[in-house]
Amino acid sequence: MDVEDDTPNFPPLKPSEMTGGVLQNASIPIPRHRLHPLKENWMAIYQPLIEQFKLQIRFNTATRCIELRTSDLTQDIGAIQKATDFIRAFILGFDVQDAIALLRMDDLFIDSFDVEDVKRLQGDHLSRAIGRVAGKDGKTKFTIENATKTRIVLADRRVHILGSFSNIKLARDAVCQLILGSPPGQVYGKLRIVSSRMNERF
């Protein structure tokens, strides 16, 4: 004897229906020093937001803001938040190709801190600390990035790190050790040990 299934079968809600039919908006101010890079990379920023998330996007020249809005075709309810994180990563100084990973992966974050949060420095001491993190021709920064699978931006006194939670912690620890005065060779050695342990674990 067949038993009828009385469980109701509702079609999935569209993002616009979840918000009561109200379109979501976001406005991201662009600093003056990032206007030229934005102009050069506009198509690379514009296309994934239009093609992947079906968002509406424009640059308001009067307010110097990027304005985002969902459309009836937007399927991802988190599209506005992902797009905002992507644009803010670009504003912080990350390359478009690095920042675009925030659109494709859910476990990536950005951690920002000030050099003086680690150690109070002034004048030449501050410049030398930033120089130790960067290294000659950026070698130290690239080494940390490759060992921890992160991307690092040095913006004056601010340090921005893009990556997964565990990888950000590794990169931040390495940067803090350099700021505190540890020799780069010693930091490299610790990074190699930790990264090899992580590779064995996974």
From TrEMBL:
It comes from the Eukaryota. The keyword RNA-binding applies. GO terms for cellular component: nucleolus. The keyword Transferase does not apply. InterPro entries: KH-I_PNO1_first, KH_dom, KH_dom_type_1_sf, KH_PNO1_2nd, KRR1-like_KH1. GO terms for biological process: ribosome biogenesis. CDD domains: KH-I_PNO1_rpt1 (cd22391), KH-I_PNO1_rpt2 (cd22392). Gene3D superfamilies: K Homology domain, type 1 (3.30.1370.10). It is found in: Nucleus, Nucleolus. Belongs to the PNO1 family. This is K Homology domain-containing protein.
